[in-house]
Amino acid sequence: MGVTNRYRIGVHFCSDAANGRVDGVRGFEQDAPEHVRESEPIREPIGVRLRRLRLDRGLSQRELASQGVSYAYISRIEAGTRRPSVKALRMLARKLGVSPEYLETGSELRDVDERELKLADAELRLRIGGEPDPARAQFAALLDEALDAGDIPSSVRAQIGLGLSAAKLGDYVTASHVLQEAVDLGTLSPLDRPDVFATLGHSYAAAGAHERAIELLQSCLDHIDEHDSENVSAYIRFAGYLSSELSDRGELGRAEAVLTNALARAEGAADAYTRIRLYWSIARLAEYEGRATRALEYVRKAIALLEATEDTMHLARAHLLCAWIMGIDDRAAEAEPHLERAEALLGPNPDQTDLAMLRVEQARIAFKRERGDDAVRYGREALELLGVDHVAEQGSAWWAVGEGLVLQDDVAGATDAFARAVSRLDEAKRWREAAQCCRRWAKVLRDAGRDADALDALERATDYAVRSQPTAHTPLEH
Fold first, then answer.
1. Phi first, then psi: what are they for 338, rounded to 5°?
2. Which CATH superfamily is domain 17-107 in?
3. pLDDT digits (tens, 9 = 90+) for 201-257
4. What is d(CA 442, CA 47) in angstroms, rounded to the nearest whole number?
5. How many CA atoms lie within 13 A of 110 on its CB side?
6. Are the C-beta atoms of 342 and 320 separated by less than 8 Å?
């Protein structure tokens, strides 16, 4: 849905009671198609409105008249043979106790002002109310309205709203298409609308267009460097997004270079959220590189800063990240309190993706605690919540399901689940986790007497382990 290839049908004309035209700022000629005329609301002509307001206040035309606005002039306006000047509108409106906009159009606000209020309401509904479906419908209607009125600024806002609501609903293909169209207009920048560019990058990645996501996020860093190089907060925000995407694609060396640059800029940065974003990114990258101690050090720093805020959502996500690091490092007992804290912070109506991540980690804890039924239940719930998105997390969920099925003595089902897990972890380039999963899969196969298959799984584990080794680089220092 773009702002091009749209056609408007409408004309601007003055009131003419004699030939039957409808009075108003915008309308349709009398010979417009019947279905069009029937669909347009009937507006009160300005002359009729003036007469109604005058009589409501018990004024005669002479009493309403003033210098420059004679009673004869008022009479012609009410008869529909004269349209008042701007000056006359203001003088008449002041004596009638209404706004000039209301006297001219029948509305207290101009169309553009009304549209702005509706856009603000839809944006508030989306950001605070958590209602993407109604907001999406509202944005779609406002986009059509703004385009028909030639109101380009409002149409851009509506298009952005459509894209953001599509992303919240998990429709990442639509979100990336709509938001890219808005960005292509050239009126937006990552400095003034970071949410748009961040959501666009996430939508590209979630839709499988990882190179587009990386290219976009790199362009955001370049833009910040060029236009506001002293804006450390903005730079670190997009450096975090870019390093995360690069890490997910297995480009750990490049991800570390991005964060090293960001860390150098962050020296002395007082903004808590700037540091939280940076610590978060370093923690994720360190875990990908197999440095669990360093990862936990930085995620704990992020949690400490978040505890001082009222940002329960990001605090819950930090606890989930901590549990994930501990779970991968085979520290289930330490991970469990973080999951309990995350679940409490997420509340009764959590974001679907956050809930899926929680269930993945709960499934992991369950199989390590030898609770096979819980592992299968949590893992399958996570898969249902994830749908076709978040391939790496799908891999973790299938791994947990496989472990649970082993505990249920369903070797055939477990083998299928492990195969699915490895396939998705491979696709997500999570080499270290793929290696761990293959080793577990090999043990299950060996215990089932399938030695040749077990050997194949072990060879794959070795290959993934080699790939998971970080390339030579200068370690990040804080």
1. -65, -35
2. lambda repressor-like DNA-binding domains (1.10.260.40)
3. 999 998 889 999 999 999 999 999 999 988 888 898 899 899 988 888 878 889 889
4. 86
5. 7
6. yes
Q: What amino acid occupies position 466?
A: V
* Domain regions of the chain by residue span: 17-107, 109-188
The pTM score is: 0.62
- Report which secondary-structure segment, H or E, holds 219: helix 210-227
Residue with tokens 């089932």: 448
Cβ-contact 296, 305 below 8 angstroms: no
Report whether 436 contacts 448 (CB < 8 A): no
Above pLDDT 90, what percent of the chain? 41
Residue type, 251: E
Report pLDDT digits (tens) over 381-426: 999 999 887 888 999 999 999 999 999 999 999 999 999 999 999 9
CA–CA dist 188, 194 (Å, integer): 9
Residue 420, Cα to own-chain centre: how many angstroms? 29
Q: How far apart are CA 202 and CA 216, in angstroms?
A: 10
Q: Which helix (H) or strand (E) holds 76?
A: helix 71-79
Query: What does the alpha-carbon distance between residue 457 and residue 24 come to, in Å, rounded to a whole number?
Result: 76
Question: What is the spatial distance between Cα 250 and Cα 466, in angstroms, rounded to a whole number?
Answer: 13
